[in-house]
Amino acid sequence: MSSTKSQQKRHMSDDQMLVVSSKRQDSASNICDRFTLISGDKLYLLFQKQQELSLPDSGVMFPWLHGFGQANVPYTEKFQLSIIRSQPLPPGMIENSGMLRSSLDLTDLFTPLNEVTQDLDQVVKVELREYRTLTGYNATILEVDELIRICRHYRLLPFLLTDTIKQYKYGNKRQIGTQVKDDGASWKRPGMFRRFDIQPAKHLELSNKVVMYCLSNGHPSRCRCHDAGVMVKWASNFVALNYLEREQNTPKIFILGGISDIPQGLMAMVPMSMASLEKPSAGQLASHFDIASFNSWDRDLLYKERLEISKMSSISMIAENVCCGNSTDVEILRLRRISPNNSLSSKKYYSTCNTIVTLSDLDYRNLDMSALDSQLFNLPSKECLNCGLYIQCVESAPLPSCTEIEYHMNQLESSIELKFPSSGSIGLGNLTLESIKSFVNICHLIHQFRKKTDRWSLIYCSDGYTETSLLVVAYLIFNWDVSLDEVLLRLHNELERPFFLFPVDLQVLGHLQLLLRELSPLRDPTRDSTLLKIDPDMFSKMFFTKPCQDVDFLRSKGPLPSRILPHLYLGSLEHAQNPNLLSNLGIKNIVSVGETLSWSANGQEQKLPCYSSACIVPTSAFGVSLASYSRNVAGPSNANLMKRNRSFSLDTLNLMESPTCKTTVTSNDGFNICHVSNLGDNGVDPMLSQLEQVLAFIDKCFQRGERVLVHCMVGVSRSATVCIAECMKRLDCGVIQAYLFVRVRRLNIIIQPNLMFIYELLKWQELKHPNAKKVDWHIMCRAIAELNKNYIKDSW
User: Which residues form the Tyrosine specific protein phosphatases domain (predicted)?
Assistant: First the structure.
């Protein structure tokens, strides 16, 4: 009899084995036993303790933060608390309100379920069988059913985005590679240096306490906090299988108790009803929710980016009675909201006064919402109400026909609205005789509208520069009768208007400038509103005349370096290799981050001054922290405590810096060049050891009233990191605010500092700007990942 039972047991199916213990299950032995409640006050104390701890040295956290499953999870007292929202607010409330500070959603952490290609029941059962094999724990049938039910509700798989094994099976395989076994070098793939999207899950792996919360009326007994806790518990158990020391990856899970007495300091945004989305008046620009959302830097960085863009590229004059602006300007004008000032705003796009990132929190309960509008937006002057010709540049728009243009020429007293193709959408192959007639006569229409009506024209697009730049530059060539390169120089230096031309735009304008200048009103001031004629000979001559390629602007075949601050430019190695271009832009100083200028090899080296200031102690490239040689730290309990007002001399700093990274200053041909050698964008080389010297060089340029170009190879990572640090200093703000300021002014080139550079900037903020608005590491990474997702496919 016993032999028969043994044979039956051996032939049991795997599903039956999962069920065996269900008849004798005991809640005390359940892997997801009832979670402990925690009060709001207790959670706030835990949160404050985490805020007081400083970030570990980068050598402790990297390369682990870059990738998947190397060795074991690093131990640190920092990152020990995760706060997770189990569900949004109920219907009638705004989903993105009612959140605690530094809190995450499950979608930030877990692998999405593909309901078309994945059988959820089968996936869960297969993985639980595998878990039983590896750990000996046999899930009960109730646990299996519960986990499947919870996953189906959330439409998520119970696996973290950082789970190497599960990602290979069920995630995007391109993110992991082709091997399940981690060879310890997967993080070295270039894409892994910028995996901002997985940092929330990395943070959860580091945490030994996880608190689930929601602000629903049924909390905590009739809500989904327990379900979310079950997901986190199982995911932590699964991801532990990637490591040798598995027990360290099982956090203690709590559920927030009463929600009526949550400390105010723990709230990122109070619950708000849908009525908060309504504008108090017809002319209002921001709602109460918009204001509350602006105050919280934990969420919705995309909204803040749009606000910053609308400020940076707000309406400005580019020629007599001709303006350029953005879609927000047009919306404001149609609401007839104007600035109390009598003249057009003189704020420059790179001005430290023309930004939202330095604003203090605004009172969303303020009854005078118009006062708040004037802080978030640049309201146009009363003169702008005189606009009568609106030309919107959009990607999908065709060129207006000559018939349509002629119609408007005969109706100049009426308000006119036209659409024009965006920059980058017209190539040389599109330039037929008819299209060129249309192009030239649009410029003619703008000029005649000003001349005959004395009213204004407004050329605009969504961001104020991307789509409009082609038409703006073409009109200025036509209006001023000057060459393309001179227009670009004057637009940048005199009009100080942001613009962005694609290489194809430079090609088109290089040929088109001949016609535009030949038909310029300056050559025939008596010309009337009759359409301009272009005969086939002029058309042929335009294409047979080769544009001059010796001009600095045209030879670069791309945008100019970006002006970030009055004294600060951000660009590429190509810009720095062109000293004539830099001279035309008034730039006399260069910071070369990790790249060498071919024309500066024979420069005369200068002795660096000695600086005395609080410095971050650097770490060798993923080796032992060098801090132990200069700090009297007794043990791990003290290693992460934030120490302010420490002072190191440059001599001390030089002893601790990476032996291969060096900063030198040379002079060559009228340029001062600060060169940081052997600093790559490889996820390995730290920058903090050089940052103090580089910023001191930039400060000397600032004090002399001179401009400086900061560049690396492309101008998106190493040099962008330096510019962010400089903006933190000049704007007296935190990393996320300075990041947004630089990102917006880099125009269409998206800055992409690697993970370690952003991490080091947070370390920099701890010492240099401790009172600036603080956003936690994992929250900042989530915000950057969400921003990048809007512009970059597979942004990792």
Answer: 692-757
pLDDT tens-digit readout, 246-281:
555 689 999 999 888 899 999 999 999 999 999 878
Q: In this structure, are residues 136 and 246 in contact, taking their beta carbons and an 8 Å threshold? A: no
Residue 773 exposed, middle or buried by CB count within 10 Å (0-12, 13-18, 19+):
middle
CA distances from 520 to 323, 440, 484, 525 (A): 19, 10, 14, 9
Q: Examine domains 318-338+386-555 and 562-789 and report if their fold is the same.
A: yes
Distances (CA, A) of 79 to 46, 49, 214, 297, 634: 11, 11, 21, 19, 21
pLDDT tens column, 117-139: 999 999 999 999 999 999 999 99
**How far apart are alpha carbons 168 and 543 in whole angstroms?**
54
pLDDT (average), residues 5-28? 41
Closest by CA position to 711, among listed 605, 607, 603, 556:
556
Bridge partner list, 160: 110
Kindly state the tokens that stand for 622.
């993923």
Q: 318-338+386-555 has which CATH code?
A: 3.90.190.10
Provide the residue ranges of all domains of the chain, joining segments of one domain with +: 35-116+152-268, 318-338+386-555, 562-789
Say if CB 67 and CB 195 are below 8 A apart: yes
pLDDT in tens, 416-448: 999 999 999 999 888 899 999 999 999 999 999
Sheet holding 562-565, edge to edge: 562-565, 568-571, 707-711, 587-593, 671-677, 662-668, 604-606
Instruction: Classify 571 as helix, strand or coil.
Output: strand
Cα–Cα dist 186/174, whole Å:
12
611-648: b (≥16 Cβ within 10 Å) or e: eeeebbbbbbbbeebbbeeeeeeeeeeebbeeeeeeeb
Instruction: Read off the amino acid at residue 535.
Output: D
**Residue 10: CB partners within 8 Å, gap ≥ 6?**
none
pLDDT score of 459: 98
Tens-digit pLDDT profile for residues 305-363:
999 999 999 999 999 999 999 999 999 999 888 776 656 657 899 999 999 999 999 98
What secondary structure letter does DSSP report for 265?
G
SS3 of residue 259 by DSSP: coil
State yes or no: cis peptide before 263, omega within 30 of 0.
no
Q: Is residue 387 annotated as a catalytic residue, yes or no?
A: no
Cβ distance 559 to 747 under 8 Å? Answer: yes
Tokens 């086939």: give the residue.
536
What's the rounded Cα separation, in Å, for the pair 567 and 565? 5
Over residues 737-747, the mean pLDDT reads: 98
CATH level 3 topology of 562-789: Protein-Tyrosine Phosphatase; Chain A (3.90.190)
pLDDT at 676 over 70: yes
What would the two tokens of residue 41 be?
């006050």
Candidate list 712, 723, 727, 781, residue with the active-site label = 712
